[in-house]
Structure formats: C-alpha cells, structure tokens
Amino acid sequence: xxxxxxxxxxxxxxxxxxxxxxxxxxxxxxxxxxxxxxxxxxxxxxxxxxxxxxxxxxxxxxxxxxxxxxxxxxxxxxxxxxxxxxxxxxxxxxxxxxxxxxxxxxxxxxxxxxxxxxxxxxxxxxxxxxxxxxxxxxxxxxxxxxxxxxxxxxxxxxxxxxxxxxxxxxxxxxxxx
Length: 177
Prior knowledge:
Elements: E1 6-11, H1 21-37, H2 43-53, H3 63-75, E2 83-88, H4 96-105, E3 110-115, H5 123-139, E4 144-147, H6 153-165
Parallel strand pairs: 1-2, 1-3, 3-4
C-alpha cells in the first residue's frame, strides 16, 4: 500500500465551557431516543448538533480542542509531505465525515484515520468511527480510506511507561501533588 496523502487525527470532542448545558442535554436526549428507534437523526437533532459543533471556541472555553491541536502540531512534522487534518467525533467541527469529504473534494486518494483514543473498548473507536468510515467508503469507492486501529498495546504501554518514568521524549511532565 502506498504512503497516505492525508491523515485525519480524530478526537472525541468536548463541549465548550460557555455552551448552555440545556443544548447538550437536549441533544443527548434526542440521540438516545433515536438510537432506540433505529431512525436517522431528525431536524432538531441535526440543528442542535450543528449549533454545538459550530459554537465559538478558544483555548479557555475548549481545552480539549486546544490540546488536540497541540498534538496535531507535534505530529505534523513527523508526517513529512502527508497532509494532516483534525476532526472530532462529537461536539466540535469538523466532523470526521466533513474532514474526509473535504479531503476527497481536494483530490486526496489515500486517507488514513488516526484516532487519539489509545485503549480498546471505547464506543467511538470501536463502533462510531468504523460505521462512519463504512459509509464514506461506500460513497467514495475510488478512495482508499484506512483506519489505524487498534493500536499495538505494547507500544501504548511503552509510551505510558516512558511518561511515567521520565524516558526519552518525556519533558518532565510528571506532576507531583
């Protein structure tokens, strides 16, 4: 397989601190009702999802988004000429579908989706993302869309041990309280 021409770093996504909680509660209630019925999202659910995803954000109001952006900035030089974009599963824009649709529209033919979730067992990494990718692959059979999941758990363990023990690449990030 050839080197990807784009990587999508996908994170969970967070609700901005200044977004009214009632909006999120209503969205979650609509999602729960819909999932029980098997129906597609209704107009109100789509509108609420879009409103929350497009809520204005800063590093203060959305520390998760700012943190994922910092990970992307550290990852970008390691990818060479491969384009890197950030996407989110929920609450933030762009969505994974939006990010991939944009890459396809700009002619990318080999896209790898890289989740920021490291451990198995999560709904986003094991259910939501694969379902979304299946729909995107069906819409764009001419584009190779890979999913870099699951991660090698021994490699994840080495990363975590390095952080805990102050190994190579660890910049004194252990905080003692």
